[in-house]
Amino acid sequence: MTKVFKFFAISEGISYLALFANMLINKSYNPELYKTLLFPIGMAHGVLFIAYVLFAFIIRKNQNWNLKEFVLVQLASLLPFGTFYVEKKLVRNA
User: Fold this and answer.
1) pTM score of the predicted model
2) Which residues belong to any copy of the DUF3817 domain (predicted)?
């Protein structure tokens, strides 16, 4: 289960960064590309975000996270690069 959580953590972080990159495309001179990419990237990010949060609940006991660590794991999903930090520092025994 830990390997699956690591996969979702990294994938969610990448999809989050892809959304930000897509916003930069919108600010550039190609708004049609932005509109084309928004739905698939947004949908992928939404699914990966939900999977990340659910798997965090599932492996909480396995990782022996106290409440502070668990809240940090959940809050990291809202920050760019946050899930990368969680995957590197808090997920053990992969």
Assistant:
1) 0.85
2) 3-92
